[in-house]
Amino acid sequence: MIANMRRREFISLLGGASAAWPFVAGAQQATMPVVGFVRDGSADTSTRLAAAFRKGLNETGYFEGQNVAVEYHWLEGQYNRLPQLMADLVRRQVAVIATPGNVTTAAAKAATATIPIVFGVGDNPVKLGLVASLAHPGGNATGINFFSQEVVAKRLRLLHELVPKAVRVAVLVNPANTAVAENTVRDAQQAADALGLQIQVHNASTIPEIDAAFAALSREHDDALFVAADAFFVSRRGQFATLTARDRVPATYPDRDFVAGGGLVSYGADILDMFHGVGIYTGKVLQGTKPADMPVQQTTKFEFTLNLQTARALGIEIPSGLLAIADEVIE
């Protein structure tokens, strides 16, 4: 009988311990810092970008699911979701808000002056009002400046070298991405004036509007296309490849992923490197470093990519000089 009682006590003890384990695990989960990662585009087309961000986190000692939780929010062009999303992150007091993108960063900065923000922006963060200076940010935000706007003129020059007979260039922007759209149009117009080109601005914020923009390109007999830097456009790179091939339109893009998917040419900052940097800075903030004390990093890696197969399909002979300086040539 004593043996039976001991057996029952032992089973009871095990039952109590097993009931306590989920509670302990839940307590550990509750204390794990949460990073709110907010980016335009879609998850299914951004796996490489998310992996680069995680790599940066790992290098600072943080591993998703082990000692940090990352909530990924992909806007898929729906910028109207931002105010509510940011308000929710602020209400829950996440440890860091990581925002690779101009619009997402502006929304985060408007939502909180206390929660650390790690950004990746293509325009000057001082001009955007995100930091006091590059060396001394002075507030709750810091991150990476990847110069997407500064390369607009160079992209247009490279396109002009590839298709020197092109006179009318369509510039496609996302009006929902207000600052980038306005700066792209301004810089493209200045570069076009210097090159003797005419530009025609087209707007698109949705999938049907991209289709409509290509219909307008065809009607107006535009000779080439300049696609603005925009995460929603990156998520639709397959659509761009299909439409430019159908309409035989030579196009320049801000990101090599467009060219890998069938686009003609791209020039811009190495976006993977930017996401990696945002991951590193997020990890440093989790370690306790204040954004105010972390200088804004400026990217030094740029990529010039050409697609030979697309060039041949369009009847374009790429000058040997451009082939010689390309970082990547896709056969």
State the main characteristics.
single chain; 331 residues; alpha/beta; six-stranded parallel sheet
What low-confidence regions span 5 or more consecutive residues with pLDDT below 50? 1-29
Number of strands: 13
Order of helices and strands: HEHEHEHEEHEHEHEHHEHEHEEHHE
Side by side, the strands of the main sheet go: 7-6-8-9-10-12-13
Percent range for β-strand residues: 15-25%
Number of helices: 13
Mean of residue pLDDT? 89
Radius of gyration computed on alpha carbons:
24 Å
Shape: elongated
Largest sheet: 7 strands, mixed
The separation of the N and C termini measures 82 Å
Relative helix content: 40-55%
Fold and architecture overview:
With 331 residues, the chain is an alpha/beta fold. Helix content is 47%, strand content 19%. The chain contains 13 helices and 13 strands. The strands form 2 sheets. It has a 7-stranded mixed β-sheet, with helices on both faces. The protein is elongated. The chain starts with a helix and ends with a strand. The relative contact order is 0.14.
Task: Offer a quick outline of the entry.
This protein has helices at residues 2-31, 47-59, 82-91, 102-111, 152-162, 178-195, 207-219, 231-235, 237-247, 256-260, 271-287, 308-313, 320-325; strands at residues 34-39, 69-74, 96-100, 117-121, 141-145, 168-173, 198-203, 224-227, 251-253, 265-269, 297-298, 302-307, 328-330. By secondary structure, it is of the alpha/beta class.
List the helices and strands and how they pair.
Elements: H1 2-31, E1 34-39, H2 47-59, E2 69-74, H3 82-91, E3 96-100, H4 102-111, E4 117-121, E5 141-145, H5 152-162, E6 168-173, H6 178-195, E7 198-203, H7 207-219, E8 224-227, H8 231-235, H9 237-247, E9 251-253, H10 256-260, E10 265-269, H11 271-287, E11 297-298, E12 302-307, H12 308-313, H13 320-325, E13 328-330
Parallel strand pairs: 1-2, 1-3, 3-4, 4-5, 5-11, 6-7, 6-8, 8-9, 9-10, 12-13
Antiparallel strand pairs: 10-12
